[in-house]
Amino acid sequence: MHDVPSLYMAMFDSAKFIIPELSMGVDMDSSISWTLPFLWSVNISFFELPGHNMTSTPLRLALRIPSWTTSNATVDVRVQEAPAPSCDASQPGSFCILLSNFSSGDTIKMTLPMVAKFETLKDSRQHLQNYKSVIMGPFVLAGLTHDTSRVALPSDDVTDQLSAVDTAGLASILALPQKVYDKRNMCGDENHKDPYCRAEDIFTEALDGNGYYMKLNRRHVTAASDISTTADAMDATFRVVRAYTRGVASEALPFGTYPLGSTISLESMTMPGHFVGIDKTGVAVLEKDDGSAGFEARHSFIIREGNDGRSLGDNGITQATVSLELASSKGTFLLLPDQSQLDGKPRGDCMDSENTDFPCSTFRDIMASPLLQSSQNPCQVNAGELQVKCRKTCNAVSKTCAAFNKALITQPLDGGASTDAKTRSSFWFQPPLGRYHEGARVLKGTDRSYVLAPFYKIVEDCYTVYFDVQHS
Fold this sequence. Notes:
This protein has helices spanning 178-184, 199-210, 230-235, 295-298, 339-342, 383-393, 401-405, 419-424, and strands at 6-9, 15-19, 24-33, 39-48, 57-64, 74-79, 82-83, 95-102, 107-113, 116-120, 131-136, 139-144, 150-153, 162-164, 170-175, 212-217, 220-224, 238-242, 263-268, 274-278, 284-288, 301-305, 322-326, 332-335, 409-412, 428-430, 441-444, 449-454, 463-464, 467-471. With 472 residues, it is mostly beta strands. Strands 10, 11, 12, 13, 14, 27, 28, 29 and 30 form a 9-stranded mixed sheet that branches.
């Protein structure tokens, strides 16, 4: 056997290489299936080098069975299209040894199941002993988060806590402020119509940048006109479900099937189990059921005709607006903040995140965090630096005053409400802006859930690769 050449293959990326001494080449093609069951598949084929005469060549082939797979890994060997002896007994971390005569066209197929597990942070400091990353096969699954990395789990078996993401019922919610309608009215009426002005074009332009999407900014639900990253798009996407009921699984509603008078709840795409609701000050927030009385009603909305009176087909609008009446307060509607706040004017004594004239210590509730009082004060840097801080720690950018300034609010509206208020309380349901990353999963904790995604697929998101795992 010592006269038989050996070839060790320990890496399974797609590659092609030649062995002139044996007149052969090897073509290796690998692929990853991010649908259940998660598999890494490797196809190896032998070919004859040009100008060579490859005969049936004896070869001792050693294939590494990675430590991240399971004992269920399979190696299917076909020589001249006929099954050949394999090495089913190989264990993770060992080599599968194949001794055979290989000819051009012979193939080997490896199927490596990718299993999930926790890997503890390799740091001996006591306060970091609970920090763990989630590994799926050879990949790290990062958790999308704007603030915390803590998760309470009933056991250390991460496979019991992982589930598929739910793509049903996703939608984005758009509102157009009064100034867009004012621009639309420039087209004139039937008696004085501008032949070069098309309301349809103005509406399209509004969708392209003048409208405001409902968007999660940490725990506030805000109005955002700039949806420029994949993280923004996911934060501006919600799952529309039937009215939240404690102890009952949420039922997603297909896009566009929201009849007038029906009651819905809006679940965050990036924070499963958290719903849009109203806090005691009338500001829109994202919360998980805390068991308090009235939680369901405070986090449910009744679909009403749009308060702005726009109807299907009116002035080129292809969809009727709707208004969202708070289920817990008849006649009270969800609406955008006023135009001055949308334009950046501070609400109360809370400055904009780019205003550096005053220290953060002058701010009220949202400035209470010790992080914001530190020397790395996010309110004292510009917007570009805030984005970098977000990527670095995911603790700063969404605690700035900008989130509070542009948070949606509730307000009682009746027939005497101003045109501006009626406009700000009217919304369009749009197809979802956000998409889950390929391979995304949900890590379900007893305190909160995280959307996980393969780390190499994350570009613009706020994330954590280590979770502070507590036992519940």
